[in-house]
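Sample entry (198 residues):
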Amino acid sequence: MSKVVRLFKQDCGVETLILPHFSALYSQAYKYTANRATAQDLVQDVFVYALENRRKVLELDPVLPWLMRCLYHRFVDQFRRNRSDVAQFGDFDFEQTVAPGTSAEDQYFHEQVRLGLAKLSIEQRVAVTLFDIEGYSLEEVCSVMELPLNTVKSHLHRGRRRLKAQLALTGSELERDEGPTPFSMITTNISGDDADAM
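Predicted structure, serialized as tokens:
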């Protein structure tokens, strides 16, 4: 983190723009990687890049979509360099995604969803995570992934189908909810009804 600290000391207002997004970036990085150390490294890389490109950051409004796009590209690069690091699940901390007081059955289901996401392709995992878990719009997902709308829809549809099969879910077990999908209700958007994304 010494490089980040050194760059923060040189910044010209960038700190106030990017620090408020630390939690959102770390949460997303953790959902991508399921590894705390790897997620922290990704966020640090994004912060270093942002600080090194402070002039560009100061022109952005809002800055979060750009930061998320940087995070996505760093995740993809790291995944391709060393798939084993991203696929390790030894240090899962499900308390980060499971609300206090959640039943043992729900905690087990969260774990299965997390493991299921890890088996998806990079693009499918990112599309499902951003759209179904984080509640991003399709346009926002396209912006982060820098892909055409139909390509994102395809990744989302295939990712949902694979995740549903891995979790052995049936349409009768699931009900569609209105509004953004929190992590605890991810099944509502993988029920096989892809009307919102197709």
